[in-house]
Amino acid sequence: xxxxxxxxxxxxxxxxxxxxxxxxxxxxxxxxxxxxxxxxxxxxxxxxxxxxxxxxxxxxxxxxxxxxxxxxxxxxxxxxxxxxxxxxxxxxxxxxxxxxxx
Length: 102
What we know:
By secondary structure, this protein is mainly alpha-helical. It has a domain at 28-98. Helices cover 50% and strands 9% of the residues. Strands 1-2 form a two-stranded antiparallel ribbon. α2 crosses α3 (57-66) and α2 crosses α4. The radius of gyration is 18 Å and the shape is flat. Residues 97-102 have low confidence and may be disordered.
């Protein structure tokens, strides 16, 4: 775990719960719909024998309609960016479990 300057100086237990370093950044209002849609469809993955391969876009469109969100090209680009981030994160997680690289 990485600690901010104040938490590094403190003796355990460190005051990380109230630390600004330990909280996520504020959500930009332009991304609120993307987050709302992502939270509704982030469990809708297409999978293969090797794990997740991408979001089920039919489910993304269905959830957008249900939430009455206009799925514009810009909003879909944000969802795809989150999708790529998650796939890369899962790939890194899977690489660690395989063992040492030669």
